[in-house]
Design goal:
Elements: H1 13-25, H2 27-43, E1 48-50, H3 51-61, H4 67-70, E2 79-81, E3 87-90, H5 101-104, H6 122-133, H7 151-167, H8 175-181
Antiparallel strand pairs: 1-3, 2-3
């Protein structure tokens, strides 16, 4: 047809594709993906997340394209698609999975790194030090008792963001994806 290819697949590509398909269909991978999805639902305040939001995060979460047909039905004790068909909801809370990365590492202060050239003045440094000393509230805990716009509430919000970023495979995602989670 007159089209000249400028790229071609290496001889190793079919083998890599086969290995990738084996990993995606393995029970261990499916369990890991289901655990990530369950933890995300447990963090959500109403224990439901619209499928449109999960679709935006599916690559970051390591979900297959057809997760509603492959993963969700295999874990009916974890989650289910709502009767309206547009949300994924939590079926059963898992105390075993309700432990954040910070809790597993037995730390209550977040690791901080400033950009090169960022100058920290004494007032800001004192505020950060005091903020780090506040008690850690797990993102899986109900924090309704916290006052809005308080330092404790801010620390809980950071704990949620920290946990969500540890749930996604690349440990980062677009800002818009985080905003969709609310």
């Amino acid at each position: 047809i007159g089209i000249h290819l400028h790229i071609k697949l290496t001889p190793e590509m079919p083998t890599l594709n086969t290995e990738g398909q084996l990993i995606l269909t393995s029970a261990l991978h499916k369990q890991d993906v289901a655990d990530r999805l369950l933890k995300l639902l447990m963090i959500a305040r109403i224990n439901k997340i619209p499928l449109s939001v999960i679709d935006r995060l599916k690559w970051d979460l390591g979900l297959p394209n057809d997760y509603t047909q492959t993963i969700v039905p295999q874990f009916p004790d974890y989650f289910q698609v709502t009767s309206t068909g547009n949300e994924l909801e939590l079926v059963c809370w898992s105390d075993k999975l309700a432990s954040s990365v910070m809790e597993k590492n037995s730390t209550s202060s977040f690791p901080l790194q400033y950009s090169r050239g960022f100058e920290v003045d004494k007032k800001f440094k004192k505020w950060v030090d005091d903020w780090q000393k506040l008690p850690y509230i797990s993102p899986y805990d109900n924090a309704c008792h916290l006052q809005a716009k308080s330092d404790e509430s801010d620390k809980w919000t950071v704990a949620i963001l920290h946990e969500v970023l540890h749930l996604v495979v690349p440990k980062k995602t677009d800002k818009d994806n985080l905003l969709l989670l609310g």
